[in-house]
Specification:
The complex is a heterodimer of chains A (about 220) and B (about 725). Chain A is of the alpha/beta class. Chain A is about 25% helix and about 25% strand. The model of chain A has no long low-confidence stretch (mean pLDDT about 95). Chain B has a domain of about 180 residues: Phosphoribosyl-aminoimidazole Synthetase, Chain A, domain 2, CATH 3.90.650.10. In chain B, helix 9 packs parallel to helix 11 and helix 17 packs across helix 22. The longest helix of chain B has 21 residues. Chains A and B meet through helix 1 and strand 6 of A and helix 9 and helix 11 of B.
């Protein structure tokens, strides 16, 4: 069993969704990590769930990056540990500097909740090995600030290093180059606006999220051998 | 002249109510006490005009654990679980400051639910506006949707359903009714009854400021020309704080040391404290110096009636207050002991060491006079109910007439609204917005719960009794269409000024309609809210008794949706058309008329129909079910087709005019789609329940095709239907 730590910040609201996705569908250990926690050693994967940490005050993720648990992610990332930030988690990772770019207010200035079609840009361990390049998957989005932006220099680097994993099939929120999910240069930190944890159960009509979580599990299992 | 200057009148109390207060106290109240009475005895808090009518509603049933009277109603849904539910209006604040008004409406109803010990799991919103495409209405519409969106999304409670209607009468009196439901372990349910002499009273959450001073009184008056002067009466919400409050309170209940809890809504500390004391037959001593304030030099009057949001009042076991405070601190919340429970049923309020108010809790919370008024029907009612169909010219182009109904804002897709609401958070939403009812599972359990809100207020305007009946049966029918058994209602009764005999008559007839429908379908009313004085110089709103209904689906794997599934499936109509065009969407769109006799629900037939559909779903005999409502049969069929991205050909045999057959809104009807092999069994089941069933056609092609008596009347490509249905609301906003 692999251990997934789900960081709970004041205002997180997808923490339990991540918990159940890991426990019930990935069938691995899931544990909540209070944001004041300093020791993250015991987890194989750390997740920052969606929500409105600190009410999105100032800007999404701007305050959460100072939480002890979030600060500790920098160290964990350096060790090569897998870190997944979903929605608000992605916003926090960019504020923290573990991922480049920023997430701005959606182009239509409104919250958008719907299923979107995503194009798989890059297939790689540990996050997308169960997919193939060019494959279309569907995942729910639910955000007001998902409009990804980065400077031309950063975009060029993201493309050159093949750090872009998923792009929106059509312009959903104004994201530059349709970017929906990126990884760090080293490849162990993932940030994505769509919610894979909301798409793991056939009863809810979509299990495409399991492509992402399944890839993570494949990677951890292989690495463990 | 002198009377107009008297302080009680300025605060909204009548002379005779003031005399009642003097009689109850045995003396004149001081200004602080008067302020407390003015909010507690307002219509909003005391239901002075509606209580006698509300007693007519059935509130008992096998599932009912708590009927009206607590923060919310409670239903037993099996497996040791309780469903807690309530709907509440926030109309007046939303008319003045739509964003905050709507946002705090959501915040308030959510607190009612977790005050009962339940985790809030769904929100629904029932909204009413004037016709779109005026700057003011578009502004109200966009801001109210944004307010709900920002608040509900932040606290992580999915908004799974609701309804939105547009009519002239709501132009300056928009309605914002928010429904919240939560799930609790029965053993963890909380109460609002204070108990335990000496137990400390804690104020928890936000600081208290001057926002929302006198909101309850404001909500008990008509909105005048200068309604915006009432801006200080509107509260400001902080959803982040609310989210912390939810988590902190649920964690505090786990300790078992919370004796009683109530949220601070209308009338603030005054209401929560006096209601908790009154319902528990105890008294309270409160020290206002202990209340954390956000403004300087607040008077006792202001502190006591402030409606600052995101606050709760907790009675905690003596000696355990530090444990509860510690939990609050963990979540970054303030909690202060501001008083304790006493044994003499008096509310005693202190500031700076002096007693500033001393009032019997019962008198304050439950002593307001009740008014039974005389109602009279409006003079023009008979004239309004006349609708001479033969005198109306048939449309030349039925395709165009059909598309204009499909794109009418009352019928068109509300996706522009619900895409702004997070409806997938919590990963329990099995049936999403846009269907007959939302279905929400409970992780780890077999059963699921379904929700809907319904009210066609035009029907209620033309016949309050039949219209209210229609609202109840439609709500119940919507639940039955997904397979759920309706188990409880929460109602939000929105009317104009009850002192107007016509408005009072509308209220009374609506309540009687709800009563009769609830009794026939055996659904108890477990909670609710009354919002009166929804009127401006232009008159009252249509009577709008919004029915929120919850249903129980025993086995979540056996649910049904409204969309056609497979080419070749047979389309079956259950129920009978009675050619009822009064108040219909078609008559409004085609002829610009709000007239006629609205559909009359046959309650016995309705019960059978719903039972039949639920049985068909349970037996896995049908692939889709959708009830016929606004826009009639034509719209119903088109919605099934658009939902499934499948065309159809339907043949209607009728002796009626074509437009009547297509657009009549007769109740107790639904459209099913059935596999050819199952048709025999489905028809057999319908006849067992004594429900007329007609095979209309089949799912096929990529167009909506309706023939009447063998002649093609409507033939529109599915894509064209979708464009009108999906864009209708937006076109309306942009005046297209």
């Amino acid at each position: 069993m692999k251990k997934f730590g789900i960081i709970v910040l004041p205002g997180s609201n997808c923490d339990s969704d991540c918990f159940y996705a890991v426990r019930d569908y990935l069938e691995q250990d899931a544990e909540y990590v209070w944001h004041e926690e300093n020791n993250l050693d015991r987890y194989d994967v750390l997740m920052i769930p969606g929500g409105f940490s600190y009410g999105d005050y100032l800007r999404p993720g701007a305050l959460a990056r100072f939480s002890p648990a979030v600060q500790n992610l920098v160290k964990e990332a350096e060790k090569g540990k897998l870190i997944i930030g979903i929605c608000n988690g992605f916003q926090i990772l960019t504020e923290l500097g573990l991922l480049p770019g920023a997430l701005m207010r959606n182009k239509n200035l409104k919250f958008i909740c719907k299923h979107v079609t995503l194009k798989v840009e890059k297939v790689c361990a540990p996050f997308t090995s169960r997919l193939r390049v060019g494959q279309r998957i569907s995942l729910p989005i639910a955000h007001k600030d998902g409009n990804y932006y980065a400077s031309d220099a950063v975009l060029e680097e993201l493309n050159r290093n093949e750090q872009i994993l998923l792009r929106y099939d059509e312009d959903v929120n104004g994201s530059v180059q349709g970017i929906a999910a990126i990884i760090s240069k080293e490849g162990n930190v993932l940030g994505m606006m769509p919610h894979p944890e909301r798409a793991c159960d056939s009863m809810l009509g979509n299990t495409d999220g399991m492509y992402i979580f399944g890839s993570v599990l494949d990677y951890l299992t292989k690495r463990g051998q | 002249m002198e009377n107009q200057q008297s302080p009680w009148k300025i605060l909204g109390l009548t002379d005779s109510e003031y005399q009642e207060i003097i009689k109850g106290l045995g003396r004149e109240p001081n200004i602080t006490e008067l302020g407390m009475f003015s909010v507690m005895w307002s219509e909003h808090c005391a239901y002075k005009n509606s209580k006698p009518l509300l007693k007519l509603l059935p509130s008992k049933g096998p599932n009912v654990m708590q009927g009206p009277g607590e923060n919310a109603g409670v239903l037993d849904i099996g497996d040791g679980l309780a469903l807690v539910m309530k709907i509440e209006s926030h109309n007046h604040p939303s008319a003045v400051e739509p964003y905050q008004g709507a946002a705090t409406g959501v915040g308030g109803i959510v607190r009612d639910i977790f005050a009962m010990g339940a985790r809030p799991v769904v929100l629904l919103d029932s909204l009413r506006f004037g016709p779109l495409n005026t700057d003011r209405t578009n502004y109200l519409f966009e801001q109210i949707v944004a307010g709900i969106s920002d608040y509900g999304n932040c606290i992580g409670v999915p908004t799974v359903g609701g309804e939105t209607y547009f009519a002239n009468c709501y132009q300056r009196s928009p309605l914002v009714n928010a429904l919240c439901a939560g799930i609790a372990d029965i053993s963890k349910l909380q109460t609002g009854k204070a108990s335990g002499i000496g137990n400390p009273v804690l104020i928890v959450g936000a600081t208290t400021g001057r926002d929302g001073i006198g909101g309850a009184s404001f909500a008990s008056q008509e909105l005048g020309e200068n309604a915006e002067e009432k801006l200080p009466s509107v509260q400001v919400g902080d959803p982040f704080l609310e989210k912390l409050l939810i988590e902190a309170c649920l964690e505090a209940y786990e300790t078992g040391y919370v004796v009683a809890v109530q949220d601070m809504g209308a009338a603030g500390i005054t209401s929560s404290a006096s209601e908790m004391a009154s319902h528990g037959n105890v008294g309270m001593e409160l020290d206002l110096d202990k209340v954390p304030l956000r403004a300087e030099a607040m008077t006792p009057f202001e502190i006591l009636i402030s409606e600052s949001q995101e606050r709760m009042l907790l009675v905690v076991e003596k000696g355990k207050e530090d444990i509860v405070k510690q939990i609050m601190k963990k979540w970054g919340l303030r909690a202060e002991v501001m008083g304790h429970i006493t044994d003499d049923q008096m509310m005693r309020i202190y500031q700076h060491g002096h007693m500033v108010a001393e009032v019997p809790a019962h008198l304050l919370a439950d002593g307001a006079p009740q008014y039974v008024r005389e109602g009279v029907p409006p003079k023009n009612l008979e004239q309004l109910r006349v609708l001479e169909i033969p005198s109306l010219a048939l449309p030349e182009d039925f395709n165009a007439a059909f598309l204009s109904v499909l794109s009418a804002p009352n019928v068109a897709s509300k996706s522009w609204i619900y895409q702004q609401f997070d409806h997938t958070v919590r990963t329990d939403t099995v049936i999403k917005p846009g269907m007959d009812a939302a279905l929400v599972r409970i992780k780890g359990k077999k059963q699921a719960v379904a929700f809907t809100t319904d009210c066609n207020s035009i029907y209620c305007f033309l016949d309050p009794y039949e219209g209210a009946k229609d609202a109840v049966v439609e709500a119940a029918r919507n639940l039955s269409m997904v397979g759920a058994v309706p188990i409880g209602i929460t109602d939000c009764l929105n009317f104009g000024n009850p002192e107007d005999p016509v408005v009072y008559w509308q209220m009374k007839r609506c309540v009687e309609g709800i009563r009769d429908a609830c009794e026939a379908l055996n659904i108890p009313v477990i909670s609710g809210n009354v919002s009166l004085y929804n009127e401006t110089e232009n008159g009252p709103i249509y009577p709008t008794p919004v029915i929120g209904c919850a249903g129980l689906l025993e086995d979540v794997s056996l649910f049904c949706t409204n969309s056609f599934k497979d080419e070749g499936d047979i389309i079956v109509l259950l129920g009978e058309d009675k050619g009822e065009m009064g108040g219909s969407e078609y008559i409004q769109q085609q002829y610009g008329l709000v007239k006629g006799v609205p559909p009359k629900a046959d309650l016995a037939m309705e019960g059978e129909l719903q039972d039949c559909v639920r049985t068909l779903i349970k037996s896995n005999l049908i692939k889709s079910a959708h009830d016929v409502s606004d826009g009639g049969l034509a719209v119903c069929l088109a919605e099934c087709a658009m939902g499934g991205q499948k065309g159809f050909v339907a043949d209607i045999e009728t002796e009626e005019r074509s437009d009547v057959a297509l657009f009549s809104e007769s109740q107790s009807r639904c459209i099913l789609s059935v596999e050819a092999e199952a048709l025999h069994d489905v028809l057999g089941m319908a006849s067992t329940f004594n429900i007329p069933a007609h095979v209309l056609g089949s799912v096929e092609g990529k167009s909506v095709v309706i023939n009447i008596n063998g002649r093609e009347i409507i033939n529109v490509p599915l894509e064209e239907c979708m464009r009108h249905y999906d864009q209708g609301l937006l076109w309306s906003m942009n005046g297209i």
